[in-house]
Write a structure and sequence with these properties.
With 455 residues, this protein is an alpha+beta fold. The chain contains 16 helices and 17 strands. The strands form 4 sheets. Strands 5, 6, 7, 9, 13, 14, 16 and 17 form an 8-stranded mixed sheet that branches. The protein has a 5-stranded mixed sheet with strand order 1-2-3-11-10, with helices on both faces. Strand 13 and strand 14 form a beta hairpin. Helix 4 packs antiparallel against helix 11, helix 5 crosses helix 11 and helix 8 runs antiparallel to helix 10.
Length: 455
């Protein structure tokens, strides 16, 4: 190991820590050019190469970039939409859940009703959420409330394969499958009145949380470049403890090619979430008469991404390549890329729970800037595989149990509900308590689910 591994855990979460994830954290610590620590957030669990819930920063001269440090669902991320509705307006409204389910395509290989040309796809990959706003599918303020303004300027669409583009053309504005969801929630508890007010949140307010990523385009891009980087490992004579850590020097042709393709896929994901936001706003507008402008975006954060950022390293400002895989940026007060009106507070940090447990809004901190390259956890973190969940649980029973709690669930099939049941995740309260107590992000509000659309 070139650097130590560092965990952020409670005693209860330590008891369910997977040995495989610990080994992966140690493996990451052996990579060339890694800086200070191989980091694990409290939602850490086993992933491809890097653990999910892992953060690692690399020197731009001596360091590497690795698809395993980003994941297959490039820029899988989450955004929160505020509304003027109250719990009494939406609770128990099966018609609302049905309408949203049919308006936002879900499931494996789901296709959009929108006809996208090759030129439009390129614009999505270059301009991200900006493309959607310019096309009348959002508002200028949406971009201010997105990490990076909703796009990475380093996108290089020439490094995205034809196969990846073909997969991306029909999937803009679709939710996908797995742990992706659209969830109506109610703000149940406010911990920090000042920050909540600045974020536009108040008690009993209904919000909509959207969790999805770059769909087949991102998955194919990751697959394509892993093959290329496996060759680069031999070319640059990089010794790896696990071939899933395939990587290349950041400044090498192979490293730059992956970074450009990854950024293009990240932009596609931002455009995708913006399209779903537009659809959601239109559904709420039609059913409740809510004005489009009355549903502002609270914030949008990426979970799976590598970015060039400036951080203090051993007392000096340096530009480094930060890999966040299943982790959330948590920039503190007065950090760059925060909306001016939130500069004194820090960026909003959105942490989903499961479909039966609370989600949380926190704010970024200086502590995160100092300890974790401005990073915190991204969700509850799984404790049971999808295969195990489908064997042990009935989707029908899970949905019935949630209905008794006042939570409506709609999914393409029962298996999609079983493998995302609340018990397959760590307790979200325990996870956010760790990052709050460690000062990686601070609690602002708790939101409880009312209705869930699973991918």
């Amino acid at each position: 190991m070139r650097v130590p591994g560092r965990f952020f855990l409670s005693e209860s979460l330590e008891k369910i820590l997977e040995p495989g994830a610990v080994q992966q954290l140690a493996n990451v610590a052996t990579l060339p050019g890694i800086i200070k620590n191989s980091l694990a957030m409290p939602d850490i669990h086993w992933g491809y190469g890097f653990p999910i819930g892992g953060v690692a920063a690399f020197d731009l001269t001596e360091g590497v970039i690795s698809p395993g440090g980003v994941g297959f669902d490039i820029n899988c991320g989450v955004r929160l939409l505020a509304t003027p509705l109250a719990q009494k307006d939406v609770a128990g409204r099966k018609d609302l859940i049905e309408t949203l389910f049919h308006a936002v395509p879900t499931g494996v290989g789901a296709k959009s009703a929108q006809k996208v040309t090759g030129h439009v796809l390129e614009q999505m990959m270059v301009k991200g959420a900006r493309w959607a706003v310019d096309a009348g599918l959002g508002e200028e303020n949406d971009l201010l409330r997105c990490e990076e303004g909703g796009y990475m300027k380093e996108a290089n669409i020439k490094e995205v394969s034809s196969k990846a583009k073909q997969r991306g053309i029909p999937q803009g504005g679709t939710l996908g499958s797995g742990n992706h969801f659209l969830e109506l929630q109610v703000v149940r508890e406010i911990y920090d009145e000042n920050s909540a007010k600045a974020f536009g949140l108040y008690q009993d307010q209904v919000c909509c949380m959207i969790h999805c990523g770059s769909r087949g385009l991102g998955h194919q891009t990751c697959t394509d470049h892993i093959r290329i980087l496996e060759g680069a490992v031999k070319k640059y004579q990089i010794k790896l403890p696990d071939r899933q850590l395939a990587c290349a020097p950041i400044s090498s042709p192979e490293g730059e090619a992956y970074f450009g393709a990854m950024a293009a896929s990240a932009n596609y994901a931002w455009a995708n979430r913006q399209l779903i936001t537009h659809t959601t706003r239109n559904v709420l507008k039609k059913m409740f008469g809510t004005g489009y402008e009355e549903m502002p975006l609270v914030y949008d954060v990426a979970h799976n991404v590598a970015k060039i950022e400036e951080h203090i390293v051993f007392g000096r400002k340096e530009r480094v390549c930060v890999h966040r895989k299943g982790a959330t940026r948590s920039f503190g007060p007065h950090a760059p890329d925060i909306p001016p009106e939130l500069s004194s507070i820090g960026q909003p940090v959105i942490i989903p729970g499961s479909m039966g447990t609370s989600s949380f809004v926190l704010r970024g901190t200086q502590g995160a800037m100092e300890q974790t390259f401005g990073s915190t956890c991204h969700g509850a973190g799984r404790v049971m595989s999808r295969t195990q969940a489908k064997k042990r649980l009935s989707g029908k029973d899970v949905a019935a149990r949630l209905a008794l709690q006042g939570i409506l669930v709609k999914a393409p099939n029962e298996a999609a509900i079983a493998d995302e049941a609340p018990e397959v995740y760590k307790p979200s309260e325990d996870v956010v308590r760790v990052v709050h107590d460690a000062g990686l992000s601070l609690l602002v509000a708790r939101l409880d689910p009312l209705g869930v659309i699973k991918g």
